[in-house]
Amino acid sequence: MEHCELCPRMCGARRTEEAGGGFCRLPETMQIARIAPHLWEEPPISGTHGTGAVFFSGCTLRCIYCQNSEISHKNAGRPFTPAQLAEKLKRLVDLGMESISFITATPFIPKILEALNLYRPPVPLVFNTSGFERVETLRMLEGVMDVYLPDLKHYSPSMSRLCTGVEDYFKKTGPAIREMVRQRGTPVYNEKGIMTSGVLIRHLILPGSTGESMKLLDWVHDELPPGIPVSLMSQYVPCNDVQVPGLKRRITRREYERVQNHMLALDLPGFYQGPTSATKDFIPEFNTDASFV
């Protein structure tokens, strides 16, 4: 790939099979840090048996507080060909996964499409993303991904710059989520309650940032069709040796309840992940032999 423009950074990096430049520093060859059942996503994603989670190395955003910094910041992972990924997808289906989740997959979309041409799992395919996406890139996935699971992280340019190094996170993410909704619309569920089509938005409440959270919920309510659910998460734990003073603590119960009450007042559908989820125990093991089915 001579001039990569898959993500909103549009850095035009030269990426070969062996090496990569630009922001993500990733080669064209897929780098994957974990392929295994994952039980801790939202109920319509994980269901009873879990989602088959494919954690790709690298990230186009790299939040300073990322709990998966081993892969997002350090690019830990192993190389996979499309044929090898297709075989692992078959293995996940054989294990009874309710869905397949492609996590931080944007730099490898062309190779993922090759793998899915070799084997299309007979379960919903979920594109799990930071939300920081190009509309043009998302259109490569139209008719391929069944469910979009984007984060909606930051509203103001100042908070976005502090946490991600880019000022235009919301400016890029808003249109990207609208494109996801255009493609898949409001959720459709099967008889087991698994989402077979649609968009589910995640928002992680950050300490000292309840005002940002409420503005983002207002945007979902005002700008998207009724029925798009939000997963409101209180699981923030300081990770990646984050040094920003305001981000060196967990959120308080009062902060969580303030945002939760605002979401209830807006009558937004969705899910609430309470304070008990604020632990590092849910961070999976990456890039070991046990990380791969």
Name the beta content range. Answer: 15-25%
> Rounded to an integer, what's the Rg over CA atoms?
18 Å
Assigned CATH superfamily: Aldolase class I
CATH topology call: TIM Barrel
Q: Name the overall outline.
A: globular
- CATH second-level architecture: Alpha-Beta Barrel
Q: Which structural class is indicated by helix and strand composition?
A: alpha/beta
Order of strands in the sheet with most strands: 3-1-2-4-5-6-8-7
Distance between the termini: 30 Å
- What is the number of beta strands? 11
Helix content: 25-40%
Number of domains: 1
Global mean pLDDT: 94
CATH structural class: Alpha Beta
Element pattern in H and E: EHEHEHEHEHEHHEEEHEHE
Count of runs of 4 or more consecutive helical residues: 9
Give me the secondary-structure topology.
Elements (H helix, E strand, L loop, with lengths): L29 E9 L4 H4 L4 E6 L12 H4 L5 E3 L1 H13 L4 E5 L5 H10 L6 E5 L5 H4 L8 E4 L6 H8 L4 H16 L3 E2 L5 E5 L1 E4 L5 H14 L6 E4 L19 H14 L3 E4 L20
Parallel strand pairs: 2-4, 4-5, 5-6, 6-8, 9-10, 10-11
Antiparallel strand pairs: 1-2, 1-3, 7-8
Helix pairs in contact: 3-4, 8-9
Write up this protein:
There is one protein chain. With 293 residues, the chain is of the alpha/beta class. The protein has one domain (30-291): Aldolase class I (TIM Barrel, Alpha-Beta Barrel), CATH 3.20.20. The protein has 9 helices and 11 strands. Strands 3-1-2-4-5-6-8-7 form an 8-stranded mixed beta sheet. Strands 9-10-11 form a 3-stranded parallel beta sheet, covered by helices on one side. α3 crosses α4 and α8 packs parallel to α9 (253-266). The longest helix is centred in the middle third of the chain and has 16 residues, at 169-184. It is globular, with a radius of gyration of 18 Å. The two termini are 30 Å apart.
